[in-house]
Amino acid sequence: MRRLRRHPASRALVRETRLSADRFVAPLFVRQGKGVREEISSLPGVLRLSPDEAVAASQDLSSLGVPAVLLFGIPDRKDETGSEAWDDGAAVQETVRLLKKSLPELLVITDLCLDEYTSHGHCGVIRGGEVDNDATLPLLARAAVSQARAGADVVAPSDMMDGRVEAIRRGLDGAGLPHVAILAYSAKAASAFYGPFREAAESAPKFGDRRGYQMDPANRREAMREIALDLQEGADAVMIKPALAYLDVIREARERFDAPIAAYNVSGEYAMVKAAAASGWIDEKGIVLEILTGIVRAGADFVLTYHARDAASWLREGL
Ligand code: PBG
Fold it and tell me: Model pTM?
């Protein structure tokens, strides 16, 4: 087995998985203002940006070959229903408009969920102390239409309500936006790996947890059912989230479905690498490229990752 490992050129010829910047999507956190660049202590290197700064960051990403960004909004005000999610003047919608004007080659994906926008931090409307599934669907559709009208190419529902893909598809089609695609967070676990994100987005639930709508991390067959349902409802691509503790789910989804599959290398996965690297315990570049290679080898077509910028620039330098 060692003969073809001796020379870098033969290793390159027989390499089965190739990582490239065009498989990455960079998540960005946006909030109103100008010239805002706020650090997030649990996500070193990730910033909350105003729309103008998000454009500058996207220019940089695009010049490094990263084809897409995923926008999360940090609202000015939160309320019971999360109404800023469908406010045409909110930070996400404003950023989308600026990006489509200044960087038409960049694909703009908007995260679609109410948790950042609700005062209670849950992903839907609360009725009788619980997240009401069906009362949430029209609100998601409304937010999707607002994001799509601003120019979003893809909306990405991350709420885990049942039937939301169909409700969003109908909403978009009904609003004359049939060309806007849906990337469904289909198999999204109720995961401790989202901790740093919730600090970044100020979206930790104020009571209870998300286990009544996000998936039990223990269930792989159920993940396949979620994916099948979302595809049936009209999802254009599906996502598995988190990535690292769920590589078997990615692999099985790859074998079962022909649809494009995304994996989300989430905030906690990023924070662990950054913390160990800052302590000098690991080689950050080597670890990051190995992690991303592993996610792609497992079967993901593309990866949403906070490492997108660094990984793209390392790949440009050559391994
Ligand atoms: C919900 C959402 C979350 C993430 C993406 N979309 C948080 C949650 O479900 O609590 C987590 C992303 C990450 O951890 O990087 N809008």
Answer: 0.97
Q: Is 158 in the pocket of ligand 1 (CB under 6 A)?
A: yes
Which pLDDT does position 280 carry in this prediction? 98
In this prediction, residue 224 carries a pLDDT of 98
Q: Taking 60 as the threshold, does the pLDDT of residue 220 lie above it?
A: yes
pLDDT for residue 302: 98
| Ligand 1 centroid from CA 175, angstroms | 27
Beta strands in 139-267 (DSSP E): 154-157, 181-188, 237-241, 261-265
For the chain, the straight-line distance linking the first and the last C-alpha, in angstroms and rounded, comes to: 23
pLDDT greater than 70 at residue 287: yes
Is 206 an active-site residue? no
Q: Which helix (H) or strand (E) holds 279?
A: none
Residue 188 a catalytic site member: yes
| CA gap 293, 300 in Å, rounded | 10
Domain ranges of the chain: 20-186+194-236
Q: Is pLDDT above 60 for 319?
A: no
Q: Any idea which architecture 20-186+194-236 has in CATH?
A: Alpha-Beta Barrel (3.20)
Query: Does any ligand 1 atom lie closer than 6 A to the CB of residue 272?
Result: no
Residue of 188, 206, 274, 285 marked active site: 188
